[in-house]
Amino acid sequence: MKERKADRDLDFEALRHAIEQCDLNLLLGFYTEDAQLSIVNAEAQRSSPFELCGKGEIAKHLRAVYGQEASHRIEGEIVGEDRVTFREACEYPDGGRLWVETTLEVHDGKIVRQADVVTKNAQADGGRAIDRRLLTRKTQLRIRPTVGELPTGDLS
């Protein structure tokens, strides 16, 4: 079992391990006591996000999610100084699948805010649809751009 870094940065590889191995205790260690989690169903039109406040409420939700028999795989991660985005692909024994686009706001190596967009339909672009507008400018400059995203103008 990997340990989290003691410094200010989120140990993303330990977070990946916790999610993919369904290690609830390790996963909960990444959240602050007053963390917030917002979950949106992408397929439900005009629905309000499901909001959870505090590590206790988040723990109940994560127990339900990771208590099911399912595989969880992290892909397409973009790790910045204060934001992390990734896609979680989930597959259930009955063949059911869903995808979760996650954005984390991180402070001192801990998750203070998490926003999840859940869908049953994979994106046609292979899951690279994380909204890069949610990242800070400093983080955006570290991302390898695709052809249509090459910067123009002054980057200073």
Strand and helix layout:
Blueprint: H1 12-20, H2 24-28, E1 31-41, E2 50-53, H3 55-66, E3 71-79, E4 83-91, E5 97-107, E6 110-119, H4 137-140
Name the features.
disordered C terminus, about 160 residues, six-stranded mixed beta sheet, alpha+beta, single chain, globular, 4 helices
What do these coordinates show?
- By secondary structure, this protein is α+β, with helices and mostly antiparallel strands.
- The protein has one domain: Roll (Nuclear Transport Factor 2, Chain: A), CATH 3.10.450.50.
- Helices cover 19% and strands 35% of the residues.
- It is built from four helices and six strands.
- The chain has helices at residues 12-20, 24-28, 55-66, 137-140; strands at residues 31-41, 50-53, 71-79, 83-91, 97-107, 110-119.
- It has a six-stranded mixed beta sheet with strand order 2-1-6-5-4-3, with helices on one face.
- The chain is globular, with a radius of gyration of 16 Å.
- The termini are far apart.
- Residues 1-6 and 124-156 have low confidence and may be disordered.
CATH class category name: Alpha Beta
By helix and strand content, what is the structural category? alpha+beta
| C-alpha termini separation | 41 Å
pLDDT under 50 segments (min length 5)? 1-6, 124-156
Whole-number mean pLDDT:
80
**How many beta-strand runs?**
6
| Count of helical stretches | 4
Q: What's the gyration radius in Å?
A: 16 Å
SSE topology string: HHEEHEEEEH
Q: How many structural domains can be distinguished in the coordinates? A: 1
Could you give a short account of the major beta sheet?
6 strands, mixed
Q: Which term fits the overall shape? A: globular
